[in-house]
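User: Batch of two.

Assistant: Item 1 of 2:
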Amino acid sequence: MLAVSLSLFIYTQAQYTAPRIEASFAPGLFFEQLSNDALVPPDHANSSRLGDVVSFAMQYAAPLKNERFTLKAGLGFSQRHYSINKYSFGEFISSIFLFDSPYHGDTFNLSYVRFTNNYFQVPLSGSYTLTRPRHNFQLAIGLNLRSDFLIGRKAEVVFDSAYKIPQPGDIQSAKQVYTRNASTFVFTAEPYIEASFSVHKNLGLLFQFMPLSYYSTPLDKRLTVTTVEFFSFKFGAFYSFK
């Protein structure tokens, strides 16, 4: 993917009319469907968990000769969080009224696991400008193709004291078990709508709305099955070389 991005960058040098460099920040939410693996609490196997993602990127945007089509390529960083809970909110409420009764009877040792995955990002995108290209305000539609390469992973684990009092070695061992199967590569495709406008001379702001993102790879080979990101936004600034 990096080689493709560099090739397109070189090709567009002879094609562009008003290139620009963009810096962006993109928060988002996603649903992660858990598997029925032994590392998932039995009562929550195959359930969905809500996670969050944030990305930072720098991209070079090069409009082609007709100024309608634009290609972008760059580099970035992203971080994703999601968690596995043994007890649901409903079980917590029930325990208030049941007083000393346990939440439920399964003997899964962990009550909570929170994952943090860091990625080196190679974003590539193409867009079509709907408004007249030379206006100060531009509206465009496009498609982001994002390749994320895992560079760091960690897990925070909390043992259920009703079933196991952990020793220091138990905590470290559990962390290793829950992080070793993280996917080293995640590819994402996301359609978007982008609005950008000039603020002062060559400086401007941009805003992207991504209604739905499609992950071709689960975030973890054992724990997760599918990932769907929704209602992501991107905020950024650009400098135009015109």
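Item 2 of 2:
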Amino acid sequence: MNKNFSELPLRTGVGIILLNNENKVFVARRIDNSKNFWQMPQGGVNEGEDFLKAAYRELEEETSIKSVKLIKELEGNIVYELPEHLLGIIWNGKYKGQKQKWFLMKFVGMEKEINIKTKNPEFLDWKWIDLNQITNVVVDFKLHVYKEIQDKVKKIIN
């Protein structure tokens, strides 16, 4: 059966740009990615779930982080589509990409709070990097997403 992936819907998602007190950005390396790509915390929105609540939930599920302060909800949504070789594989083949709402937050806790060895771990490692570096570490099909985020966040924190 040859499925027409272009007809698949986009998954509704959220993403979190988490800054530390030096305005460095939290990124983590996915377990299911054999290359050295890093990403910011992000995930799907459950049916009927508010975007901000979903962002807090995803952040905690992926990193155990609860100690954050919301700085700003970024305007608009950012869409990305999966490359052909991942269509039908990611999200059990139900979606062709994501339409994401992004939130800028400040980490206000102690680093020992950060624990990626969660109940359903998604990450192997994490680190803080300069905002200018996020486009250097991301997987290619999300590069435009991270460039747009970078531009929006620079306007907020500078």
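The chain has one domain: 9-157.
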